[in-house]
């Protein structure tokens, strides 16, 4: 008798579970259908950045475009949207450049298709930096205010001029990369001269390296050591000041420990004291 009761109970539970699953399946199907209907009604305007002719969007990739610790744009600056169909990550990419042709970021991928559709329908865009957020210096954020118009006169550059501006900006970036690489190679050459005990040539290499962007810190470190040894305090002070400026302008400044800047400034203070003592003797 007991086994029969257990069997009936299990069967009842299985039937109840089956009907609950069916009920949930119907709900899910209805939910999917409702969401699809809503999406069809909203269409692509669901992600639109425009309210009538004006809208706002986040400038994407800002931190990846910085050449140093300074932003390449300012508040209320007009910037320009350029399609980048050769972009290997997104053929619909739209880059944003400043008046110098320097790329400062991209239109969010959620909005670039919408803008391309508008471009194909004869629209132009007046884009202005409306907001900059530096609460997290390593992850700067900026907002674009974009106004769509069919009046080409609102864009101060012709298509050809924008193309030339872009090329000019790309050239600046390439020069920066080249000079950064040269700084590393020259600094490395200075280390080789050190190993050969050719200190004069080593100093020449390190001095040449610190004139270039993204100079390896070793060039500054070795110069201040050599100038301290020969009591050339004016040159030590000059190099230390340049070192501080280099660190502050570095892309990696946000990642460098504050103690490092503090250490350089401490050495600068010591060098100034030594210089004054030498002058008073």
What do these coordinates show?
The protein has 281 residues and is α+β, with helices and mostly antiparallel strands. It contains eight helices and seven strands; from the N terminus they run αββαβββαββααααα. It has a six-stranded antiparallel barrel. A hairpin with a 2-residue loop joins β1 and β2 (54-60). The longest helix has 41 residues, at 2-42.
Task: Produce a short descriptive summary.
The chain has 281 residues and is α+β, with helices and mostly antiparallel strands. It is built from 8 helices and 7 strands; from the N terminus they run αββαβββαββααααα.
In terms of DSSP E residues, the strand content is 15-25%
Number of DSSP-assigned strands = 7
For the biggest sheet, the summary is: 6 strands, antiparallel, barrel
Which class best fits the helix and strand makeup? alpha+beta
Name given to the CATH architecture of the largest domain: Alpha Horseshoe
The CATH topology name of the largest domain reads Serine Threonine Protein Phosphatase 5, Tetratricopeptide repeat
Instruction: Name the average pLDDT.
Output: 82
Shape type: elongated
Major sheet strand order: 2-5-4-3-6-7
Roughly how many Å is the radius of gyration?
31 Å
Report the top-level CATH class of the largest domain: Mainly Alpha
Alpha-carbon distance between the termini?
114 Å
Low-confidence stretches: 2-9, 21-46
SSE sequence, one letter per element = HEEHEEEHEEHHHHH
């Amino acid at each position: 008798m007991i086994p029969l009761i257990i069997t009936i109970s299990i069967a009842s539970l299985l039937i109840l579970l089956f009907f609950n699953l069916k009920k949930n399946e119907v709900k899910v199907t209805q939910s999917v259908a409702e969401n699809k209907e809503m999406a069809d009604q909203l269409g692509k305007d669901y992600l639109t950045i425009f309210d009538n002719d004006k809208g706002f969007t986040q400038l994407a990739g800002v931190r990846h475009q910085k050449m140093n610790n300074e932003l390449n744009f300012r508040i209320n600056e007009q910037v320009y949207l350029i399609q980048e169909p050769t972009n290997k990550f997104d053929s619909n990419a739209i880059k944003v450049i400043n008046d110098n042709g320097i790329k400062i970021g991209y239109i969010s991928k959620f909005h670039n298709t919408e803008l391309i559709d508008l471009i194909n329908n004869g629209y132009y865009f007046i884009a202005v930096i409306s907001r900059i957020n530096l609460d997290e210096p390593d992850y700067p954020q900026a907002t674009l205010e974009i106004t769509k118009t069919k009046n080409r006169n609102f864009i101060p550059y012709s298509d050809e001029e924008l193309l030339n501006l872009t090329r000019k900006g790309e050239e600046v970036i390439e020069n920066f990369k080249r000079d950064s690489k040269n700084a590393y190679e020259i600094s490395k050459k200075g280390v080789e001269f050190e190993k050969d005990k050719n200190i004069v040539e080593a100093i020449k290499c390190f001095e040449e390296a610190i004139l270039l962007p993204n100079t390896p810190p070793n060039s500054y470190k070795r110069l201040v050591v050599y100038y301290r040894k020969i009591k050339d305090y004016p040159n030590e002070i000059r190099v230390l000041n340049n070192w501080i400026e280099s660190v502050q302008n570095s892309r990696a400044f946000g990642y460098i420990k504050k103690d490092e800047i503090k250490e350089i400034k401490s050495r600068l203070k010591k060098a100034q004291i030594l210089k004054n003592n030498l002058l008073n003797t």
